[in-house]
Specification:
Chain lengths: ~375, ~325
């Protein structure tokens, strides 16, 4: 066991010694979590809507509708609303142009302006506001239909209210678009960003770190270790353990730091670490594969960063999977990132437990088994060739 | 030569010798990189493999150290059979590879600790030994510096220190002075001499004949994968009929001097090239005093005395028809 631990420890130490890692491993992820949290954060019910416009029947009805969707609504003037939206303090601004109240009273066609923030939160809010407006219109149409049939307005409204208690027709049509918002309900400002960055950086750091493996091969350190009374399997296992330790280090650092700095809730810590471990094993295997197939360090770093970004982008490591189209979301699941993302979403937002994330863990472990076996085989081959 | 001796010599060797290499061969495709190489190293002995680039030195060493498999032949270290699949005998060997095999991001101490753990060492034992080695290789005051910031000579010393850490029976050094400044080179040679005096067996490869002459008790001359000749320096030179030459430059009664010098048993032949006398001599360093006395006694006044001894370079040239260095 001692040789395995020695190789693993040396690899972790070399990783920590690399000065360029200080920024990319420690500072950069926190910076991105902060930026993402401030821009996209507070999605769904938390970011709130700023409503701009004179008071009137339309405004009151809209506010009531929005509030019935658990949105926090505040009045603001236009400049204030735009500024808050652009700073990510509000998820959207809803602007009622001058004269719109009169048009509404007359029953004319009206136009409202929605200014959502960029990204998921904005998208979610846009749908919720649209839903609110739609519901309002449906109600109005229904009321109109009833009063035309000669029913007194108050009686008609009472009937409508009663009907709404039983069926909510507009809800049926908007349920789909409402998914995004629902997915993020109860999520803190930084949670989604922190999860994405964890996935992005664990993989990216592992892949980029494969350059130290190439260096060890080229400098003959790995070959030399075989002059000691160790089995080649021990050295290879040590390398694998070292790569895994690097992935875990990066992941645990992001978990702990975001918990302390941004108060991110990772859900059940044991389950969170378990997901990280399965995902980290895939990352470690991928790093071994890259570090043994490519002989040039600069090329490996380049490929590592490129691949790390593409996989993360595709797999929910940059933008939340929930805003992906169904097709793209299916494609995303060729990446380990998407499976880990789903598992984290389960335990962070849906109150999922061990049973709920078993399928995702299973897929991650299967992926890990494949890349670890391929990586070990390919490293053994490249080491034997260099002797 | 030792290899030609009968079975009696063989059984003695099998018990005592630190290393016994027998009929070792290895091909790379069509190339016979190492071809039936055999040699032995006794405790405390320094054995040199002297040969040019591509001679097969590193390949031989890689098989001796159990890094690569031999196509044929055996290696025994301290009586145990060496092979890549048997890690245990490897503990008797300390390998110092030709290329620096150290972690540049780790300090001298961390590198030593890492390789010590691979040797199965640990705890206070390892700590104490690491400190000893750091002092031995003169890096105790730089122990915490990253090895990538070391000079070439310091890196080489660390490379050697790693091989010494676990106090092996046999230290293998593969061209340890390549690319090293003269001062560091000398300090490396001195430490090898010290280790040898302390009783360690050393296998030393080089393509510098001066190093082989200075360090090695016995030398195997290797070229194109084969040991071309083996023996002590003097044996090798005698093998190729090499003799010493002394050149006496001066004036006076040269004819008388020639006659007088020819009477000396150490002197084989005396020639006169107009300016000086050229003597072919056995054991020039011991005979030179007598020769100078005779020549001056015969009426010659000497302006210059020059001794030329055949070296391994000329032996190599004669054996292989090519120069040791390209
Ligand atoms: N892994 C390998 N694959 C193919 N050929 C090899 C391999 N290793 C060595 N050789 C060839 O075997 C021959 C002996 O090489 P080796 O490295 O043993 O020589 P050397 O005596 O150590 O030379 P140098 O003084 O340059 O280090 C050379 O022709 C070399 O090209
Ligand atoms: Mg060599």
């Amino acid at each position: 066991m001692r040789p395995v631990a020695a190789v693993a420890w040396a690899e972790l130490l070399r990783f920590l010694r690399d000065r360029s890692n200080i920024f990319f491993v420690f500072v950069f992820p926190m910076l991105l979590v902060f930026v993402l949290g401030s821009t996209f954060g507070g999605a769904g019910t938390q970011g709130g809507v700023r409503v701009v416009g004179e008071s009137g029947a339309l405004r009151d009805a809209l506010v009531a509708q929005l509030e019935s969707q658990d949105l926090s609504v505040r009045m603001a003037d236009e400049d204030e609303a735009l500024e808050q939206v652009s700073r990510g303090r509000a998820a959207a601004g809803l602007i009622l142009p001058d004269g719109v109240e009169e048009a509404y009273a007359r029953g004319d066609r009206i136009e409202l302006e929605i200014v959502p923030t960029s990204g998921a939160a904005g998208l979610a809010m846009r749908q919720q506001v649209a839903t609110a407006v739609e519901t309002l219109q449906l109600d109005r149409a229904a009321l109109g239909a009833l009063t035309q049939r000669g029913i007194e307005a108050p009686a008609a409204e009472a009937a409508l209210d009663a009907a709404r208690g039983r069926v909510t027709p507009s809800r049926v049509t908007v349920r789909d678009v409402d998914d995004v918002a629902q997915a993020f309900s109860g999520v803190g400002q930084f949670e989604v960003g922190a999860t994405s960055q964890l996935l992005l950086f664990v993989f990216l750091t592992s892949l980029a770190g494969s350059s130290t493996l190439i260096q060890a091969r080229r400098e003959g350190v790995i070959a030399r270790s075989f002059s000691a009374p160790v089995r080649s399997g021990q050295v290879l296992l040590g390398q694998t353990t070292g790569r895994f330790a690097i992935a875990m280090f990066q992941g645990l650092y992001i978990m702990i730091a975001t918990t302390l700095i941004f108060d991110v809730d990772w859900g059940d810590p044991l389950l969170a670490v378990l997901i990280l471990a399965c995902f980290g094993a895939v990352a470690a295997g991928a790093a071994m594969l890259l570090g043994s197939l490519v002989d040039n360090e600069a090329a490996a770093s380049g490929i590592g960063v490129g691949l790390g970004l593409v996989l993360a982008g595709l797999g929910g490591g940059m933008a939340p999977l929930e805003i992906f189209s169904d097709t793209l979301r299916t494609v995303a699941h060729i990446t380990p990132h998407a499976w880990a993302y789903d598992a984290f979403a389960d335990i962070q937002r849906r109150g999922g437990g061990m049973i709920d994330i078993l399928p995702q863990l299973g897929v991650l472990l299967a992926m890990a088994a494949v890349v670890l076996a391929a990586g070990t085989w390919s490293l053994r081959r490249s080491v034997e060739r260099s002797l | 030569m030792a290899g030609d001796e009968d079975q009696v010599g063989d059984t003695r060797g099998a018990v005592d010798d630190v290393l016994v290499v027998d009929g070792l061969s290895r091909r790379f495709g069509e190339l016979r990189a190492v071809d039936e190489v055999s040699f032995r190293i006794a405790p405390g002995e320094t054995y040199g493999l002297l040969g040019p680039n591509g001679a097969g030195k590193t390949t031989t060493i890689s098989m001796v150290a159990g890094l690569i498999r031999a196509d044929a032949g055996t290696v025994r270290v301290a009586g145990q059979r060496m092979s890549p699949s048997h890690p245990q005998p490897k503990r008797h060997i300390g390998l110092v590879p030709q290329d620096l095999a150290i972690y540049p991001e780790l300090s001298a101490r961390e590198n030593l600790v890492f390789f010590g753990r691979l040797q199965g060492m640990g705890g206070a034992d390892l700590k104490g030994r690491v400190q000893e080695v750091l002092e031995l290789i003169g890096l105790a005051d730089r122990a915490k510096d990253k090895s990538k910031n070391f000079s070439g000579g310091m890196k080489r010393r660390l490379n050697i220190g790693i091989g010494l850490l676990h106090e092996p029976h046999l230290l293998i050094l593969d061209e340890p002075t390549v690319g090293v400044d003269p001062q560091s080179r000398n300090s490396i040679l001195e430490s090898v001499e010290r280790l040898s005096t302390a009783g360690m067996a050393v296998l030393y490869t080089t393509h510098y004949m001066e190093e082989a002459e200075r360090l090695c008790d016995r030398i195997g001359i290797i070229d194109t994968g084969r040991i071309q000749a083996e023996g002590t320096r003097d044996e090798l030179i005698r093998l190729t009929g090499g003799v010493d030459q002394i050149r006496l430059a001066g004036t006076g009664d040269l004819t008388h001097a020639i006659e007088s010098l020819r009477e000396l048993p150490a002197v084989e032949q005396v020639d006169h090239d107009g300016l000086a006398l050229r003597l072919t001599v056995h054991g020039a360093p011991t005979a030179v005093a007598e020769i100078v006395t005779r020549a001056t006694g015969a009426g010659m006044s000497l302006a210059d005395v020059e001794i030329t001894r055949p070296d391994l370079e000329s032996v190599f040239l004669q054996l292989t028809g090519k120069a040791l260095r390209d």
